[in-house]
Amino acid sequence: MTSARYGQASMNDILVLNVGGTKFETSRQTLLHDPASMLAKMFDPVSPLQPGVMRDGAYFLDRDPVNFRVILNYLRSGQLILDKNAHLEAVKTEASFFGLAGLEDFVSEKIREASEKDIKEDKLCDEFLLNVGGEIFVTTKETLCKYSNSRLSNIVEGKCRQLFDKNGILFLDEDPKDFAYILRALRNSQNVPTAVPKEHIDNILNLRDNLEIREIKFGYREQSNSFVSEYFLSVCR
Description:
10 helices; alpha/beta; disordered N terminus; rod-shaped
């Protein structure tokens, strides 16, 4: 049987494959490109492995045609060419099924690169720019929206009127020096009061109330009556 197949077959033969209902035409040489693969063993004339059921002049393979197209193009060119409907994980599964170790490793590397890129982009997306009185603050939306019922959170989330600068950055018409303490307090633990200069405390508290973030607390340092020059935090309530 093997010798008969060998005698009738040529590397230049054009073969028709019916993969999940979609027909592909390729050469035997292409299918034998990776000698260790299942496809090579199926269509090598000297291999004992049969190529599959012949139906209407085509060898039938019960696999997904979208992913098989990627497999076939890889055998033709050695390149990973993704169809718009093909996904890396699915292609990796097909590469494993057909014993294409080189392609499987290549796709695994692409999956790893894509994952690292997504993580990097997610980190970049976490960065949030806010223009306060002409000064750009770099923070996260999570920090600014720490107290979801605050006016600041509603502005950032777009639930109330927003203003933007010429670069499209969200703008607050407030004193940036005062806002710096608001942002510091938002970054602190909820029950930890944030120290501010005594001469600025009233302005900072007014800004806090304007932004409706009553949950954050401030205090100022004042000299104690002790002989030693020590300072303590007076919490403003």
